[in-house]
Amino acid sequence: MAASLDKVLHRRFSSTGSSVSVLGLGTVKFGRNQGVKYPDGEGAPLPTDAEISSLLDLCRENGINLLDTAPAYGTSEERLGALLGARRRDFFIISKTGEEFTEGKSVHDFSAAHTLLSVDRSLQRLKTNYLDCVLVHAGRNDLEIINNTPVLETLALLKEQGKILSIGVSTYTVAGGRRAVELTDAVMVAYNKNYRDEKAVIDYAHEQGKAVLVKKGLASGHVNTLGGLKENIRFILETPGVTSLVFGSVSAVNILNNVRAARNIQ
After folding, report:
1. How would DSSP label each residue in 55-94?
2. Dmax over Cα atoms in the chain, in whole Å?
């Protein structure tokens, strides 16, 4: 395994008392190879258990402590649960609720009953008695989901019970993102050098002291169209209010390149 570099910076995650790395590892590639948008992902072989275990160690050695997963990521949760073992305490685990990937397509359910089932199932799959954060896996009708379904109310109840330490929403619109900031601990938004439509959400979350997770920061693997890896990572992480950039990878080389790009960011 490659020698570790300087560990990446950690930032406070909202008011939770926890800190997370400015780079987070998304794990869709651990468990799903259908209906994906990243290059060469459709039908690609999933990594072996040994490969995933090695990647988890590599992340830990380089200071990456944030893992992002979801029920919609195929077998990602089960595989992480089987492989983390004693390393569980070293990672801040984010999962989601509201989206399932079944028979090659996504289906959504934001009812109270499904939310309770989903979180309990994630706890079982991940072999843990708490989740550091659960995000609503919202669609483009994010504001309607936030305002007109019981999903956030149900997550808040689970937070009171200690099964979840923080809650948030993965959003698509500025209106949905701002509402998520008002009601939860964290928001996940798309943001990169070529896509800044949701920058207002980042600014608002920064004002309110809420965590901001960035998705699609590397344009689903098409970062070369954004002016280069290092420039884009630094652009995102140096934006005031951004807590962590979540990227998906099953390549040790890619992970180390991202760590290099994020070095010395304050």
Report:
1. HHHHHHHTT--EEE--TTSTTHHHHHHHHHGGGGGG-EEE
2. 50
Two structure tokens written together for 73: 């990521």
pTM above 0.90?
yes
- Secondary structure of residue 102 in the 3-state scheme: strand
Do 213 and 188 touch, CB atoms closer than 8 A? yes
C-alpha distance from residue 107 to each of 98, 119, 168 (Å): 8, 16, 20
Q: What is the pLDDT of residue 39?
A: 65
223 pLDDT tier (thresholds 50, 70, 90): low
Supply the pLDDT for residue 1: 39
Task: Determine phi and psi for 3, rounding to 5 degrees.
Answer: -65, 145
Number of Cβ within a 10 Å radius of residue 192 = 22
Q: Please tell me the distance from the alpha carbon of residue 191 to that of residue 216, in angstroms, as a whole number.
A: 6
The type of residue at 44 is A
Would you kindly state where each structural domain of the chain is located, as residue ranges? 10-262
Residues 97-147: tens digit of each pLDDT: 999 998 888 999 999 999 999 999 999 999 999 999 999 999 999 999 999
CATH of domain 10-262: 3.20.20.100
Q: What is the 3-state secondary structure (H, E, C) of 103-162?
A: CCEEEECCCHHHHHHHHHHHHHHHCCCCECEEEEECCCCHHHHHHHCCHHHHHHHHHHCC
Alpha-carbon gap, residue 33 to 46, rounded angstroms: 7
Lowest mean pLDDT among 135-144, 209-218, 227-236: 227-236
Cα 171 from Cα 189, distance rounded (Å) = 6
Lowest-pLDDT choice from 3-7, 168-172, 217-221:
3-7
